[in-house]
């Protein structure tokens, strides 16, 4: 193992630069490429069609993603300073979310992939419910 690059299929890998693994849990401070469920990194995560660059983030193939910079995840392009991205219906963000074919730019929003959108700037979304204050 090295502090620059680790290629392994073991479940638990800790590295300071780069980890490429198909296991389960990876913690790194620079870059993580992983297809397993749990990824915690402080800089960059590239994960199965989900490109993420962020300074503080928790990315998981499950429902919850918290990040402070940028999350691009499975046809959902998100750039935000504080966000909760759920691969299910809910997305909460304070800047901008582009998700699942509808394009949304907003400062405070709750985007639900099927039904509900609350925003203070602009929401073009083909869903049934749109609430905006601007």
Can you put this structure into words, describing what you see?
The chain is mainly beta. The protein folds into two domains: 1-48, no CATH class; 62-134, no CATH class. It has no helices and 19 strands. It has strands at 6-8, 12-15, 18-21, 25-28, 31-34, 38-41, 44-47, 50-53, 57-60, 64-67, 70-73, 76-79, 83-86, 90-93, 96-99, 103-105, 109-112, 117-119, 131-132. The chain is elongated, with a radius of gyration of 16 Å. Residues 1-24 are annotated as: Disordered.
Q: Please identify the structural class as seen in this structure.
A: mainly beta
Give the tally of β-strands.
19
Low-confidence stretches: 1-134
Number of domains: 2
The order of strands across the largest sheet is: 2-4-6-9-10-13-14-17-18-19
Report the principal-axis shape. Answer: elongated
SSE topology string = EEEEEEEEEEEEEEEEEEE
Q: What oligomeric state best describes the polypeptide chains here? A: single chain
Mean pLDDT: 39
Q: Note the gap between the termini.
A: 54 Å
Q: Sketch the major β-sheet.
A: 10 strands, mixed
């Amino acid at each position: 193992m090295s502090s620059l690059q680790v290629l392994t299929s073991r479940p638990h890998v800790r590295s300071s630069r780069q980890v490429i693994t198909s296991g389960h849990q990876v913690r790194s401070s620079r870059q993580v490429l992983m297809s397993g469920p749990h990824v915690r990194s402080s800089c960059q995560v590239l994960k199965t069609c989900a490109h993420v660059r962020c300074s503080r983030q928790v990315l998981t193939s499950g429902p919850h993603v918290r990040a402070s910079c940028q999350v691009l995840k499975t046809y959902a392009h998100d750039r935000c300073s504080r966000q909760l991205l759920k691969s299910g219906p809910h997305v909460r963000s304070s800047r901008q979310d582009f998700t699942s074919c509808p394009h949304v730019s907003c400062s405070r929003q709750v985007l639900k992939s099927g039904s509900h959108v609350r925003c203070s700037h602009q929401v073009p979304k083909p869903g049934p419910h749109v609430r905006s204050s601007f």
